[in-house]
Amino acid sequence: MKRRLFLACVLTFATAPAAAAQCQLCAPDKLTSAAAREAEVPLRVVVETRLDMGRIAVGAMGGEVAVDPVSGARRLSGDVVDLGGFALSGTVTVRGAPGAEVRVILPTSVDLEGGHGRTARVTGLITDLSAAPRLGPDGRLQFRFGGRLQIAGADDGDYRGRIPVTVEYQ
């Protein structure tokens, strides 16, 4: 008889908005209109929806749960069984200077903490952004992201962690 372990995972986010600034000693006397506009309008980053892998049971062999950022669909692989609940891709809204190009930085992996000192790792964090994302004419950009949760067979519990999301003007 296979023993199944319960696992629930919710990720929260630490946002680190940043605006690139020019060296005032090195810059020409007048900033370009785009650079001046960006300097006047700071970036704001708001997490609208947290990434949630849902509820699963994990067998002795472990497995993986992946959440697609575009569709929000959850894929299970390995010795993992779906116990229901909603899997959600994360949603972030960025506000700043209209039309400005931005760079979004997500870590390559994040360790989640569960009870009794256990950990699980989220890897492959990806967004649904284009290669050169820009804020819209209203100064707003919303994007979604997902990733893969890797679970060992003995790692049951409720896992939580923070994913730092950094956004910079280009």
From TrEMBL:
Pfam families: DUF4402 (PF14352). It comes from the Bacteria. Residues 1-20 form the signal peptide. Keywords: Signal. This is Resolvase. It comes from Sphingopyxis bauzanensis.
